[in-house]
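WARN no homologs supplied; continuing
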Amino acid sequence: MALGDLLTELTEWVAARTGLVMGADLFAGEFQPFDRDQGDTEALACVMETGGIPSQPTLRGNVGEYNFQVLAVSKVSYFAARDMAWRIHRVMSDMPGIPLEHWTVCVCDAVSPPQTLGFDERTGREFSTNYVVRAYNKAAWAAV
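OK structure emitted
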């Protein structure tokens, strides 16, 4: 299982807990939210991998440490982007023992609360939050 699978499963889990819709309100990996008509959506968010060197285990059964970022954006208002970032943060911050389909998240630590990135002409108001996810692949763990 690749890290992309963890990203997708984690994003789907967040969508289920927040009531957001994958591909409409919440995206995994990347998104171009304002290249199309935004419609009634006040804010959008994306969970993506961040830079740095994750401690991906080389031995089967070890827990890996993976870095993710949530970016919430809104062309409507500062508060719409802020509320979206906090909505996701309340679910992801310090979540323990989440069994996903192919992965188990031992813990998800927030590096900081949602922070404003200011205003971008293309995407509008932006908020960012970084997380460290400690997880293991179930198949690799069972193979030990």
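The chain has three helices and seven strands.
OK
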